Amino acid sequence: MGATHHVAADYFDGYSVVGLVAVVGVLFVAVAFGAGQLLRPTAPTPEKLLTYECGVDPVGEDWAHTQIRYYVYAFLYVIFAIDAIYLFPWATVFAADGFGGTTLVEMFVFIGFLAVGLLYAWKKGVLEWT
Amino acid sequence: MSDVLEVALRLLAVLAAFLVLPLLVGQAEHKAMAHMQGRLGPMYAGGFHGWAQLIADGVKFAQKEDIVPAGADRRVFQLAPAVALLPYLVVLIVLPVGPNGFVGQVVDAGLFFVLAVMGVGVLGSLMAGWASANKFSLLGGLRTAAQLMAYELPMLLAAASVAMAAGTLSLPLIVEEFEWWWLPWQAVGGLVFFTAGLAELQRPPFDMPVADSEIIFGAYTEYTGLRFALFLLAEYAGIVVLCLLTTVLFLGGWHGPWSDSLGWLWTLLKGTALAFVVIWLRTSYPRLREDQLQRFAWTVLIPLALAQIALTGVVRVVAQ
């Protein structure tokens, strides 16, 4: 029991240093922005604050309607990404003693599913941008 | 007490590397690109071959007015550069440079951690694209999103192949397990990983999200001064991280002659060579069109990555 506590403590120790580096990063950005505020001039005019569109006055709404062509890609991505996440824990043990052939067959089933899914999407014309 | 000092030193070293290495890559890009195009590049700042050009640029950026467009979503607009930049600093601390614990911090699931944190950086571009309230920025942001979705996947799959080969997710252990014959064995995965990484950084030829001839500068169009400089720094920090990570995963990191004493040098040399390739690609390839970008990821890189996983699995199990 004591040993597990110790291991867990070691494990999170690593992340505390990683957390510290994130804090250092936030400080760096804060100092940079703070120093920038002291160094730079501030002289806003209405023209400066206008949305930039090639030098002419902006036309219409700024948050424009746009056709999102890739929502099907987004679905595909979510499916594949979740599959890929499960690869990582499996990757560390699949070649361990006594797994060998079985995990290899499993892997080909897995890749087969992904490949068939991709082929299906391709055949359906989902992978066309236009 | 000495523990505190050591941690402080490590943090300082990582911060220094984070601030200096991107500038070195940037300067190398200025000069290498110029010579490839028959120019000299910066020659005046600092005297010797314009070595201080980027420092001069930094001074200039710090003095420029910080403009937030009237229509913009102010807070999100201002925070976006920090979100784009900081993930690369956090990633740097877990990248192993040399043997015997020459690493900012050992994290057990290092590979997983690195990939997860690198994904956060793209949020900065998305925030900038949306918050700018500019049509070109919005288009750039949406292209960034599409590109992330297409290229994250081959990157994950190629990285998983290395994890399979080494049987661990810890970056130092992956390098320790490395043998020379991994180079041909993991070559396809390495190419897929590096290419997908370039695309995630939106470097040429995958720079459609910032295509200047179409959408000005994409998500960064409305940025000025220091915040713009931070976006640029993020791009070059991204190059540093990608090159070092590819070195660690696919090129054997610190392995090389006299690696016990000179291991760190090997890591840096291999990373430098890759950074040169990144610059070289920028001068040699035209920009891919948006539909070509998507097709390349889904119909070339992902099948290749799946094939690499199959190859890795078979070799690993059969070789036992």
TrEMBL record, chain B:
<feature type="transmembrane region" description="Helical">
    <location>
        <begin position="180"/>
        <end position="199"/>
    </location>
</feature>
<keyword id="KW-0812">Transmembrane</keyword>
<feature type="transmembrane region" description="Helical">
    <location>
        <begin position="228"/>
        <end position="251"/>
    </location>
</feature>
<keyword id="KW-1003">Cell membrane</keyword>
<keyword id="KW-1278">Translocase</keyword>
<feature type="transmembrane region" description="Helical">
    <location>
        <begin position="79"/>
        <end position="98"/>
    </location>
</feature>
<dbReference type="Pfam" id="PF00146">
    <property type="entry name" value="NADHdh"/>
</dbReference>
<protein>
    <recommendedName>
        <fullName>NADH-quinone oxidoreductase subunit H</fullName>
        <ecNumber>7.1.1.-</ecNumber>
    </recommendedName>
</protein>
<comment type="subunit">
    <text>NDH-1 is composed of 14 different subunits. Subunits NuoA, H, J, K, L, M, N constitute the membrane sector of the complex.</text>
</comment>
<dbReference type="GO" id="GO:0005886">
    <property type="term" value="C:plasma membrane"/>
</dbReference>
<feature type="transmembrane region" description="Helical">
    <location>
        <begin position="263"/>
        <end position="284"/>
    </location>
</feature>
<keyword id="KW-0472">Membrane</keyword>
<feature type="transmembrane region" description="Helical">
    <location>
        <begin position="7"/>
        <end position="26"/>
    </location>
</feature>
<dbReference type="GO" id="GO:0003954">
    <property type="term" value="F:NADH dehydrogenase activity"/>
</dbReference>
<feature type="transmembrane region" description="Helical">
    <location>
        <begin position="110"/>
        <end position="132"/>
    </location>
</feature>
<keyword id="KW-0520">NAD</keyword>
<dbReference type="GO" id="GO:0009060">
    <property type="term" value="P:aerobic respiration"/>
</dbReference>
<dbReference type="GO" id="GO:0016655">
    <property type="term" value="F:oxidoreductase activity, acting on NAD(P)H, quinone or similar compound as acceptor"/>
</dbReference>
<feature type="transmembrane region" description="Helical">
    <location>
        <begin position="296"/>
        <end position="319"/>
    </location>
</feature>
<keyword id="KW-1133">Transmembrane helix</keyword>
<keyword id="KW-0830">Ubiquinone</keyword>
<feature type="transmembrane region" description="Helical">
    <location>
        <begin position="153"/>
        <end position="174"/>
    </location>
</feature>
<dbReference type="InterPro" id="IPR001694">
    <property type="entry name" value="NADH_UbQ_OxRdtase_su1/FPO"/>
</dbReference>
<dbReference type="GO" id="GO:0048038">
    <property type="term" value="F:quinone binding"/>
</dbReference>
<keyword id="KW-0874">Quinone</keyword>
<comment type="function">
    <text>NDH-1 shuttles electrons from NADH, via FMN and iron-sulfur (Fe-S) centers, to quinones in the respiratory chain. The immediate electron acceptor for the enzyme in this species is believed to be ubiquinone. Couples the redox reaction to proton translocation (for every two electrons transferred, four hydrogen ions are translocated across the cytoplasmic membrane), and thus conserves the redox energy in a proton gradient. This subunit may bind ubiquinone.</text>
</comment>
<comment type="similarity">
    <text>Belongs to the complex I subunit 1 family.</text>
</comment>
